[in-house]
């Protein structure tokens, strides 16, 4: 709430011309249960913090008002919201008939409340039967409806209810790109769809409770450690109640056998919940020393419990949505969440028909730590929703319009004030500079930050985190949605774990460094790390000459010599992540010494360091400068001076460059005979100087079957940053859960 109050103070005063100079938007928020309140509360705080624009009325109904489900309306009062109306709408019985009667009872009671409140708009969340009653009442009484979390896919009757509310709603706030596309396919008006992310993520990603241990001890006991307990939350499946009760019984048996402290939350009010509670009591869960059974946990405390759990198990949407923000392992049981987008932290047990199957899943998942996932939000949903609410013109016709036929496939490329550009945060760790950039899906560098690369590990990591946080904050201002972070660095990298194994001599104190964990923890984003040569190859595959090519090799010619190999459209890393160290192909047994300690490597002949070494030798012997060249006393001799001298007719400089080009060409011939690619891409500042020499060596030395290979110079201005971005963009956009 403090955050949104501060936010409102910073905003310039806007004139509400559309709806009348003094008219405030009267918003009714109706909440039915503990789950939907966790999504609605951040929006309610945002609305409350801007009284110059909004009037808030809160209506409470459903299981909030039932003692067996924790009387959760109290947490709304504790959050200092005035509850305008309490409606007892649940008919007890916890079966199919009771659900229908509850909807009917809500439909009987709601018209009187809405007549008194006369809201301009009602905010309805999700897919519960209570929400269907709310949407039906509002639609029939000509009240505009804003539906939160439409377009998603899951199992049970919830799926049908969610889509039914979508057809009644006038405006839609969705959490993922897929949900947005589903709404468009359902013929909803694209201009009335906001891709905002899940509001609960605004709270999740800002949760920094250092005293989480007291919360864990309060709910699970004084002897429990972090990552050494389980949170279980399982609801009945209304379309197959008998099977879901059997699955719950097997789950409890597996948890008893697994023998870890477990917090079990009571199921929701759906049909079948009474039978599930009977199963808990039959197995003595409420009195078992390893179990704590509770009706309700306040959301702030629940966040801390799942964030530090060894595992979460059940079929709650919380497991596949919110828990991914912390990288906590999740076991999703049964079909209740079928179709949901999930992070890599979720292990699905679709047919949990045996205790052993669930037990095996617990053994696989318990205690793991996954990268944080932001599939469902980036922590900025509420500001987008408030902006969207302010844009609603109450003078527009109330009657909904459906878009027939379905919108063209490329509609998502039309970005306006509602939509955002999918982007990556790219980091390039070079020998001299540290660069961070926001890179769009099309390869456009939207914004770039550059700093000198610090010499020590601590300073370097601190600078990386600071620059990434700054760039991620700026992404909101430039209308970009960050999908993840890609890091390109010199040295040998284990991309599976995100660890730099060994560094080049150009980057000090950079061996055995875990980059993924601190960056992911700081930004709550998935993080990918790879060698700079591999990143250059990925950049070519997505944005450059390698696009659509099945087999190609990229060679970087810069300070050192590196590269990447793409075979059958996939990058080759090798068994010990040492593949494509192309600069260390030996082309002479008695050649100059390389930085790696060997002799005769390509890098010892053709790298910028090697050319600088030869240039210094010529300069020391007064054989470098020719007519048309001059150097200041304090000027450092570089490879550029050698190239300039060769162009001006210095035969010794020209000979050195031809030798370097020949060495590089021989290395390329070895690559052709080994990998047989159809394309060789030369990248880096020296590429244009070597391309002709490489082609000549291929014509002289290569087998006739590979002489037809294309050798081209890269046309990418910044392959390192584009390659780092490709790590993110390729992975997140082709991923299927």
Automatic annotation (TrEMBL):
The record's keywords, sorted A to Z, are: Allosteric enzyme, ATP-binding, Cytoplasm, Hydrolase, Kinase, Metal-binding, Multifunctional enzyme, Nucleotide-binding, Phosphoprotein, Transferase, Zinc
Any keyword 4Fe-4S? no
Q: How does it assemble?
A: Homodimer. Homotetramer. Homohexamer. The hexameric form exhibits both enzyme activities, whereas the dimeric form only catalyzes the phosphorylation of N-acyl-D-mannosamine.
Q: Which PANTHER family match?
A: BIFUNCTIONAL UDP-N-ACETYLGLUCOSAMINE 2-EPIMERASE_N-ACETYLMANNOSAMINE KINASE, ROK (REPRESSOR, ORF, KINASE) FAMILY
**Protein family:** In the N-terminal section; belongs to the UDP-N-acetylglucosamine 2-epimerase family.
Q: Which NCBIfam families match?
A: NeuC_NnaA (TIGR03568)
Q: What is this protein identified as?
A: Bifunctional UDP-N-acetylglucosamine 2-epimerase/N-acetylmannosamine kinase
């Amino acid at each position: 709430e403090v955050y949104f109050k501060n936010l409102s103070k910073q905003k310039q005063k806007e004139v509400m011309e559309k709806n009348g100079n003094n008219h405030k938007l009267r918003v009714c928020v109706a909440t039915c249960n503990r789950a939907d309140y966790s999504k609605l509360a951040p929006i309610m705080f945002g609305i409350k913090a801007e009284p110059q624009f909004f009037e808030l009325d809160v209506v409470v109904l459903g299981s909030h008002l039932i003692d067996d489900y924790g009387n959760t309306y109290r947490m709304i009062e504790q959050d200092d919201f005035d509850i305008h109306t309490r409606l007892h709408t649940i008919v007890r019985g916890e079966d199919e008939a009771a659900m229908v009667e509850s909807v009917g009872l809500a439909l009987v009671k709601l018209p009187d409340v809405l007549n008194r409140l006369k809201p301009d708009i009602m905010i309805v969340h999700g897919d519960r039967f209570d929400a269907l009653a709310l949407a039906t009442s509002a639609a029939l009484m000509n009240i505009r409806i804003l539906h939160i979390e439409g377009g998603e896919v899951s199992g049970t009757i919830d799926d049908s209810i969610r889509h039914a509310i979508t057809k009644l709603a006038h405006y839609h706030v969705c959490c993922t790109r897929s949900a947005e596309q589903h709404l468009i396919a359902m013929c909803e008006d694209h201009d009335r769809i906001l891709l905002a992310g899940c509001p609960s993520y605004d709270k999740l990603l800002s949760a920094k409770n250092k005293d989480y241990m007291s919360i864990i001890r309060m709910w699970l006991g004084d002897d429990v450690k972090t990552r050494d307990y389980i949170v279980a939350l399982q609801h009945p499946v209304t379309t197959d109640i008998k099977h879901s009760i059997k699955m719950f019984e097997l789950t409890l048996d597996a948890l008893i056998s697994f023998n870890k402290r477990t917090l079990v939350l009571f199921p929701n009010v759906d049909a079948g919940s009474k039978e599930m509670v009977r199963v808990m009591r039959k197995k003595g869960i409420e009195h078992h020393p390893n179990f704590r059974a509770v009706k309700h946990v306040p959301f702030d405390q629940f966040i801390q419990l799942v964030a530090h759990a060894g595992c979460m198990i059940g079929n709650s949407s919380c497991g596949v949505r919110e828990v991914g923000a912390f990288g906590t392992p999740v076991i999703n049981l049964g079909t209740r969440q079928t179709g949901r987008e999930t992070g890599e932290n979720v292990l699905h047990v679709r047919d949990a028909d045996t205790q052993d199957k669930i037990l095996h899943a617990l053994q696989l998942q318990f205690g793991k730590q996954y990268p944080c996932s932001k599939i469902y939000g980036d922590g900025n949903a509420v500001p987008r929703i408030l902006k969207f609410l302010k844009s609603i013109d109450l003078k527009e016709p109330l009657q909904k319009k459906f878009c027939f036929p379905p919108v063209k496939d490329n509609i998502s490329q039309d970005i306006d004030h509602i939509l955002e550009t999918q982007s990556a945060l790219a980091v390039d760790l070079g020998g001299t500079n540290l660069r961070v950039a926001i890179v769009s899906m099309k390869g456009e560098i939207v914004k770039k930050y550059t700093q000198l690369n610090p010499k020590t590990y601590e300073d370097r990591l601190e600078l990386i985190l600071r620059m990434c946080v700054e760039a991620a904050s700026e992404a909101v201002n430039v209308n970009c949605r960050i999908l993840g972070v890609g890091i390109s660095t010199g040295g040998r990298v284990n991309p599976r774990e995100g660890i730099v194994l060994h560094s080049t001599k150009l980057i000090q104190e950079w061996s055995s460094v875990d980059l993924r964990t601190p960056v992911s923890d700081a930004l709550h984003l998935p993080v990918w790390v790879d060698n700079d040569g591999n990143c250059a190859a990925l950049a070519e595959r997505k944005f450059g000459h390698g696009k659509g090519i099945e087999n190609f090799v990229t060679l970087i010619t810069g300070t050192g010599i590196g590269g990447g190999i793409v075979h059958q459209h996939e990058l080759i890393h090798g068994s010990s992540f040492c593949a494509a160290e192309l600069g260390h192909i030996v082309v002479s047994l008695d050649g100059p010494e390389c930085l790696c300690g060997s002799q005769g490597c390509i890098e010892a002949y053709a790298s910028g360091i090697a050319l600088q070494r030869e240039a210094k030798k010529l300069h020391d012997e007064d054989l470098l400068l020719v007519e048309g060249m001059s150097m200041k006393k304090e000027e450092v001799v570089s490879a550029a001076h050698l190239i300039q001298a060769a162009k001006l007719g210095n035969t010794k400089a020209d000979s050195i460059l031809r030798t370097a080009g020949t060495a590089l060409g021989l290395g390329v011939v070895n690559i052709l005979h080994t990998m047989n690619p159809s394309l060789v891409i030369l990248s880096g500042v020296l590429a244009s100087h070597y391309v002709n020499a490489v082609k000549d060596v291929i014509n002289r030395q290569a087998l006739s079957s590979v002489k037809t290979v294309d050798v081209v110079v890269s046309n990418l201005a910044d392959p390192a940053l584009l390659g780092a971005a490709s790590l993110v963009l390729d992975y997140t956009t082709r991923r299927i859960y």
